[in-house]
Amino acid sequence: MQKITIGQYEAAYIESGASDKPVLLFLHGFLGESSLWHSLMERLDNQYRCIALDLLGFGGSSKPKLKYTVWHQTAFVSEFIAALMLKDVTVVGHSYGGWVGSALAVEQTGVLSHLVLIAPAGIRDDSFVGKYNYMRPILWETPLVDWVLAGLKPIAQVTGQQKTYDQVAMARREFSKQPVAKSFIVDRLRPEDAIDTVENDIHQIAVPTLVIAGAQDTTIPLWHCETYAQRVPEASFEILPDADHDLIRTECDRIATLIAHFF
User: Fold this and answer.
1) pLDDT in tens, 82-110
2) Which of 13, 121, 122, 190 could form a cystine bridge with 53, CB 3.0-4.6 A?
3) Element of type H or E holding 208
4) In sequence order, what are the residues at sequence separation of 6 or more whose Cβ sits closer than 8 angstroms to the Cβ of residue 122?
5) 46 and 77 in a common domain
6) Domain final position from 159, 186, 213
7) What does pTM read for this prediction?
């Protein structure tokens, strides 16, 4: 893990491969971090300079309290690219990282050379609104929530609800460390709050683009990926029949092969 100061924030990242190779910049998904790319990077770093960045609010990067939009991330990634003086960058983005990558490709001309979107988020879908409202109490910034959880632990053990309790307790810990996740649940309660989705802009993407979808993905519906494939000019589209949303870890060999063929 390395860190670099960009503007008022710190950016954490991992890197492998030779510095004189073409650059692949990996952007992780929601509740993720750069380490999730290890397996895929191992399959590609003999041909590319692989850099995986912790996005703003994730992993080892700065975690400011903001009402997060995708534009906070595109500004952060743009400054990171400039700070490392990277040229002809290929962005490889998974889920939330794909959303960031596509928004960056709309904004930046001349910086990116290719774009690989793996189960990309960022398409407006009003069915998501309110979907996670039931989780809001565990985001309250008060020790009362922790006291209640502590009191419920022995009850969960007796009633056979230990697994459910462990999931709630883990969510409490993780959301306290993930300001972006908290912002997405608290600040996006209505359809009109989706001010930064990209479905109306991706027709402006001017770099070769590969879209990869998992047919069994229950997190990002297949039609989101199809929207990218249809609206990004001349995008290539690959569907992995047995893959779910965790495909960057379960389908590394196939994804590495697709990226190699894409280039």
Assistant:
1) 999 999 999 999 999 999 999 999 997 77
2) 13
3) none
4) 70, 98, 99, 102, 103, 197, 198, 199, 224
5) yes
6) 186
7) 0.86
